[in-house]
Amino acid sequence: MKIVFVCTGNTCRSPMAESIARAKMPNLDIVSRGLFALDGAPVSQHTLSILEENQLPFPENAKAFTEDDINADLILTMSASHRDTIKRMYGSEAHVFTINEYASNSGDVSDPFGGNKLEYLKIFNELNPLIDKIKIKILK
């Protein structure tokens, strides 16, 4: 099974979600992308610091979402606008959800870009239990 996590620039939220999910579901193909990512841009230093503190794998540098990514089994976005953009660009796909929607929650995952480390830690603490719920749902 292939899962793609999607945010805006692929430097904060989606790489954090990718790393958490890869640690919790090592047998799955898990990647992250950005709708407006600059290919090769480095992942945020605060993201890398939090991942290192939690002994999680580092993601690759930023990659843009492409038409090939629509073929993933599951696409989880950080916001409704990301989800809606993908559906608009590639057609109404049944396998595109916000991460909260798929985990039976509501709302968007806020973008910590430009914020301090505590703001990034808040996002990490929000994503961690969401990915636990996703793991349970996927592995049923």
UniProtKB/TrEMBL annotation:
Chain ranges passing through the membrane: none
EC number: 3.1.3.48
Record's keyword annotation contains Metal-binding: no
Active site as annotated: 7 (nucleophile), 13 (nucleophile), 111 (proton donor)
Domain of life: Bacteria
Any one GO MF annotation of this record: protein tyrosine phosphatase activity
Keywords: Hydrolase, Protein phosphatase
Domain Phosphotyrosine protein phosphatase I: 1-137
CDD domains in the record: LMWPAP (cd16344)
Reactions listed under catalytic activity: O-phospho-L-tyrosyl-[protein] + H2O = L-tyrosyl-[protein] + phosphate
Keyword Hydrolase assigned: yes
PANTHER family: LOW MOLECULAR WEIGHT PROTEIN TYROSINE PHOSPHATASE, LOW MOLECULAR WEIGHT PROTEIN-TYROSINE-PHOSPHATASE ETP-RELATED
Function summary: Dephosphorylates the phosphotyrosine-containing proteins.
Protein family according to the UniProt entry: Belongs to the low molecular weight phosphotyrosine protein phosphatase family.
Name of the protein in question: Low molecular weight protein-tyrosine-phosphatase PtpB
Organism name: Staphylococcus nepalensis
